[in-house]
Amino acid sequence: MSGTKTVAVVISGRVQGVSYRAWTEREARARGLSGHVLNCEDGTVEAMFSGPEAAVDAMLAACRQGPPGARVDDVVATAPAEAPPSGFRILS
């Protein structure tokens, strides 16, 4: 049985203006994950995913592809500095 995993993620490439946040929200909710996603001023997208380890790992793999129109150059996952929220939401 796998435990709970929580990661903070920075996704870089052409990830803004291609509905990456909306796609991430749908994908994370479909996997039963908690967390959030937001666009950053430097053109990256930041996210937090929390849930069963296998689901978080699958979400990280999906983030490397992203939605149609995205070009993902890098996905960097680290330990989060904050606790995950309940549910999943898009932050502005």
TrEMBL record:
The keyword Hydrolase applies. InterPro entries: Acylphosphatase, Acylphosphatase-like_dom, Acylphosphatase-like_dom_sf. The active site is at R21, N39. Keywords: Hydrolase. GO terms for molecular function: acylphosphatase activity. Its EC number is 3.6.1.7. Residues 6-92 form the Acylphosphatase-like domain. It is an enzyme of class 3 (hydrolase). The keyword Hydrolase applies. It holds the Pfam family Acylphosphatase. It catalyses: an acyl phosphate + H2O = a carboxylate + phosphate + H(+). Belongs to the acylphosphatase family. This is acylphosphatase.
